[in-house]
Amino acid sequence: MNRFKTIYQDLLKKHGKQGWWPIINSKTLICEYHAGDPKNDAERFEICIGAILTQNTSWTQAGKALINLKRMNALNVKRMRRISDGKLKEVIKCAGYYNQKTKKIKIFTEFFSKLRGQIPTRKDLLNIWGIGKETADSILLYGYNVPVFIIDAYTKRLLLKEGLIDEKAGYDDLQQLFHRNLEKNVKLFKEYHALIVAEGKIK
DNA sequence: AGCCAGGCTACCG
DNA sequence: CGGTAGCATGGC
Question: Where would I find the beta strands (DSSP E) of A53-200?
Fold first, then answer.
């Protein structure tokens, strides 16, 4: 049993199942965690927009912005295209960086519409303005069930604390560590990343 | 009253 | 190339 697996088991024991990615319940307009795979393109689009909104922002704030969009029925390509930049800025304001995020969402929406149900490649995602490694990997893992391990600030802090990396390790270094020490299992990757965030939050 | 939040881009040397 | 300022609001 390697260290990466025991850390996972410890975190699972401590925090319980997280069930990411949260999806808005259409009736209650509440973000729910049920750990199901995305059922359709609408849910995938919602996950992608949520991933952009939560960049360097707490999910509490990103979720509010997402619900605002859901309430005005703008969480689909057709409506998102029609909404003005000014209006979009207004409703996502609570998630911060609203000028940049408006531009990112608009650009991403065009990309998404051209996918027509296909799974995007990581390379294509990274070529989109506003989509970096963490956002791309979040979209792939939670939106499309592609087994890529997501690295974030919490992940680095955790591995540093465990003495498994040094300070100068970068995103790709950390990702390789997880890929080499765990079986490529989508459910495991989803839950593990969520648990790392849960652990990171409480301090 | 600061500091931080589930990053990314642009620009600097 | 690696390093870093700027983006912005809300919660604590």
Answer: none
